[in-house]
């Protein structure tokens, strides 16, 4: 069968621009100029005889025709990538990129990663910290995993904190989390003391964006409600940080009291760097997942890392 198709490059540019809803971001992702993106889109529209984008303010929106065709186009690219994957010899592949929330990468993965390096010394690991791995509202978004390049030479996996629905991707649940309050030991024993939850009214509450995503709202408000002191402590006040890593560090430096996820702070609590003054936990409907495209799930580097990580996650669940 002879297929009558437009330029594959034009289709690739369209998919990127449609995913980002931005010609500028598509140009950056594809390492071409914005003018080249516009040219490719225009040539594709002329070939198809339909408009694909409409200008709205400084951005663009998909037309109905573009929106209807996009899912099938993505399926086609994935199928093409899978076909190439069956041809390409992957046995010698040695590079693996792991993208994870910063607090997971620093507090949980790093203390264990040396063991993986000893087990698989041929695999060169690159760890990338990204707050985007905390899924919006702790609900999974295809736009997050959609940035993975299935056609790349390097394998890439992601650690997501979310609800676990990643259509088209292989997702393995690692373990759940619990939101707890942590503070410096000196702050708890200092003046004013922190003997009961109501005492928080006299302490600085440290906020971070990631914790609010996990809590589906104001994380402090949820914790104060669980502690029964929401009417006594203002959960909206206090400085804000972009990541949980920063708010935890601020707590260790006695700048205030933070919320953190167990088991991410278990080592800090065990070393007395931080303390958990109240045994009050809020368990969000979220867990850590190892996520990767199905098309690369059987690559040697991915298989080795997945096997090792699931064993470590199982040990974590047993320990808790």
**Low confidence ranges:** 136-148
Name the assembly state. Answer: single chain
Percent in helix: 40-55%
SS class: alpha/beta
Strand content: 15-25%
The main pleated sheet reads as: 5 strands, mixed
Strand arrangement in the largest pleated sheet: 4-3-5-11-6
User: Ends: how far apart?
Assistant: 58 Å
Which geometry do the CA atoms define?
A: globular
Question: Number of helical segments?
Answer: 12
Provide the succession of SSEs.
HHHEEHEHEHEEEHEHHEHEHEH
Give the overall pLDDT as a whole number: 84
Total strand segments: 11
Rounded to an integer in angstroms, the radius of gyration calculated over CA atoms is 23 Å
Topology:
Blueprint: H1 8-20, H2 23-30, H3 34-48, E1 53-56, E2 59-62, H4 64-87, E3 95-100, H5 102-119, E4 124-129, H6 142-145, E5 155-162, E6 169-176, E7 178-182, H7 185-189, E8 205-208, H8 209-214, H9 219-227, E9 240-241, H10 244-252, E10 257-262, H11 266-270, E11 287-293, H12 300-319
Parallel strand pairs: 3-4, 3-5, 8-9, 8-10
Antiparallel strand pairs: 1-2, 5-11, 6-11, 7-10
